[in-house]
Amino acid sequence: MTKKLLIIDTDSGIDDAQALMMALAAPDVEVLAVTCVFGNTAAANVCQNVLRVLSVCERQEIPVFRGSACPLVGIGNLFSDHFGGDGLGDVMEYKDPLWEEKIQREHAVNAMVRLVSEHEMQVSLVALGPLTNLALAVRLDPCFPNKLRDLYIMGGNMEGKGNVTLCAEFNFAMDPESAYIVLEEFICPTYIASWEYSCRNALTWEFFEELIHQDAPAARFMKMITSKCWAYSKEALKSKRDVFFGPGFVSYDSYAMAACVDSSMVLESIECPVRVELQGSIARGMMVLDRTNQLKKNHSVKIMTKCDLTKLSRLLMESLRQPCKK
Fold first, then answer.
1. What domains lie within the chain, and their CATH numbers?
2. β 150-154/287-289 pair status
3. C-alpha closest to that of 170 among 130, 213, 124, 123
4. Cα separation of 154 and 67, whole Å?
5. pLDDT digits (tens, 9 = 90+) for 197-233
6. Of 80, 83, 94, 150, which residue is most buried, by most CB within 10 angstroms?
7. CA angle (91, 97, 99) in 5-degree steps
């Protein structure tokens, strides 16, 4: 069977690492490239984090490209400390002094445009961070979206419940203009794993403990990077996410990746046009669902609402049993 070709665009926090491992473990997936974007941490840290994950999984042959270091407009907000200052829980004692030599010289956006053109209608693009690289890609090549097989996004929100601002989800809030461009101009089949979708399909903390205590290098790596991170603290989340959705383990980016790896993972979704709000001090970056077609847009997206948790659990478990040979 022909393998599904993936480009993974990431800001490489802990959940990005989990999602990347999920793709690497999938037997019918070939990761063509990993492109890096600012978000959970600075772009230089993102590159190093991706190299660490590929090293743990013994998949260093996959090329890594450095991309946008700031949003499309303005200087952007300070990086989130959700996963620590370095994006991987601030537990890394060793830093590879030669990491820059392992990053491809080609800019991530140019690589993205080139690879999709070389494999027209075959590449699934999985976007796990701010959408800056994608917005720049469509500016470089207006036909870029038409050449994609499909697009999977972790980001946005359906109900105005925000996790970094009152109304906006982190990835969209970090670069609202790019999110706007992508959801207006990418007319390829587009699937969105929103913040609410991830939180409403949480797994148990007991499952998380089982997940990270597997006897494999990837599981030990995940146990280490989550060990001191407040985002994996049940107590810290009681005044954060749990206020809206109740307690549970949520690996946000893994929901978008799981849908790409196995489309049967998504049991229910909403299909409608969407738009990202760019104005206002409260609603900027919020994704608005147009379920009554008031915007008269010519294309819709699919917003996931219900997940097969049994299948998700299995993919997560398999993702941490690495390195594995395909």
1. 4-319 (3.90.245.10)
2. unpaired
3. 130
4. 18
5. 999 999 999 999 999 999 999 999 999 999 988 788 7
6. 83
7. 90
- Write down the residue that tokens 């499952």 correspond to: 207
Written as six digits, the tokens of 104 are 């491809």
Token readout for 284 is: 């900027």
Bridge-based pairing state of the strands 123-127 and 4-10: parallel
Angle at alpha carbon of residue 221, lines to 216 and 227, rounded to 5°: 125
39: left (phi over 0), alpha (psi -120 to 50) or beta: left
Burial 106-131 (b: 16+ CB within 10 A, else e): ebbbbbbbebbeeeeebbbbbbbbbb
Residues near 256 by beta carbon (within 8 Å), at least 6 away in sequence: 19, 126, 127, 128, 152, 153, 154, 191, 192, 193
3 state SS of 42: coil
Q: Which of 125, 131, 135 is nearest to 285 (CA)?
A: 131
Report the predicted TM-score, pTM, of the whole model to 2 decimal places: 0.96
What pLDDT does 92 receive?
Answer: 80
Query: Position of tokens 């970094």?
Result: 164
Q: H or E stretch including 124?
A: strand 123-127
Ranges under pLDDT 70 in the chain? 1, 76-81, 236, 238-240, 324-326
- Write the CA distances from 203 to 88, 170, 188, 308, 309, integer angstroms: 21, 21, 31, 11, 7
Q: Is 147 helix (H, G, I), strand (E, B) or coil?
A: helix
Burial class (CB in 10 A: 0-12, 13-18, 19+), 149: middle
Angle between helices 252-261 and 309-319 (to 10 degrees): 100
| Rounded Cα gap, residues 60 and 50, in angstroms | 10
